């Protein structure tokens, strides 16, 4: 609403420059996490199918990566699809998976990803996704496995409780097998078994929810 109003009166560019100045000259951000939310609401307002909103949201990721590159943000985590989203109507889920396949296929040859050596990782219960999408994700992860300049995580089929449960099970198994002492378990130990253990900076400096709501919905 604000963007449309400012565009009409010709002030949006000035507003955009002011926002850029505030971010650029504010505290240094290393890890930004974004909850990709509000896509269905956007589609509903325009009387379109919900998956058109999801496609519109997915298309903004390229611009997002460009902004993060300019700001020097090294770690980006996008919460794109939760395990609870599997409860939506089958047609919507199917369309979301198609959009995801299209985007991951493009990531394989994305110039920015390879030029900037961006390590791409999907965090979540990947085994719940269609096999064709699992294969594409694996290809992208293998192709970028040795890149360490930037890190791009997609939280897909992700649930915060499931992440904690999986980490706990892994630690318990280590203790049972005599590979880990109970006394040695601390926060640092626990972090090693989280989905984001591949990153040196796991804690987000800033979490943004694109719909403007102020809740985490089980994210990280």
Summarize this, please?
By secondary structure, the protein is α/β, with parallel strands linked by helices. The protein contains ten helices and five strands; from the N terminus they run H-H-E-H-H-H-E-H-H-E-H-E-H-H-E.
Characterize the structure shown:
This protein is an alpha/beta fold and 220 residues long. It has a single domain, classed as 3-Layer(aba) Sandwich (Undecaprenyl pyrophosphate synthetase). The protein has ten helices and five strands. A five-stranded parallel sheet has the order 3-4-2-1-5, sandwiched between helices. Helix 8 links the parallel strand 3 and strand 4. The model has no long low-confidence stretch (mean pLDDT 80).
Low-confidence stretches: none
What's the mean pLDDT score? 80
How would you characterize the largest beta sheet? 5 strands, parallel
Integer tally of domains: 1
Helix content: 40-55%
How are the SSEs placed, and which strands pair?
Elements lengths: L1 H7 L3 H13 L6 E5 L3 H7 L4 H10 L1 H11 L3 E8 L7 H18 L3 H5 L2 E6 L7 H13 L6 E9 L1 H17 L10 H5 L14 E4 L11
Parallel strand pairs: 1-2, 1-5, 2-4, 3-4
Give keywords:
alpha/beta; globular; single chain; Undecaprenyl pyrophosphate synthetase; 10 helices; 48% helix; five-stranded parallel beta sheet; 220 residues
């Amino acid at each position: 609403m604000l963007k449309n109003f400012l565009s009409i009166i010709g002030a949006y560019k000035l507003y955009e420059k002011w926002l850029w100045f505030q971010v650029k000259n504010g505290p240094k951000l290393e890890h930004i996490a974004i909850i990709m939310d509000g896509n269905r609401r956007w589609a509903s307002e325009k009387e379109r199918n919900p998956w058109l909103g999801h496609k519109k949201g997915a298309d903004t990721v390229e611009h997002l990566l460009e902004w993060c590159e300019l700001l020097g943000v090294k770690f980006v985590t996008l919460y794109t699809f939760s395990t609870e989203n599997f409860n939506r109507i089958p047609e919507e889920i199917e369309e979301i998976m198609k959009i995801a396949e299209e985007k991951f296929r493009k990531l394989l040859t994305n110039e920015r990803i390879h030029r900037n050596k961006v390590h791409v990782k999907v965090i979540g219960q990947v085994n719940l996704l269609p096999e064709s999408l699992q294969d594409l994700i694996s290809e992208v992860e293998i192709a970028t496995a040795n890149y360490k300049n930037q890190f791009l995580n997609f939280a897909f089929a992700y649930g915060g409780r499931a992440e904690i449960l999986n980490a706990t099970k892994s630690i318990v198994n280590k203790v049972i097998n005599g590979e880990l002492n109970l006394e040695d378990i601390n926060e640092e130990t626990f972090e090693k078994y989280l989905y984001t253990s591949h990153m040196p900076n796991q804690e987000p400096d800033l979490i943004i929810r694109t719909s403007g709501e102020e809740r985490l919905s089980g994210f990280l």
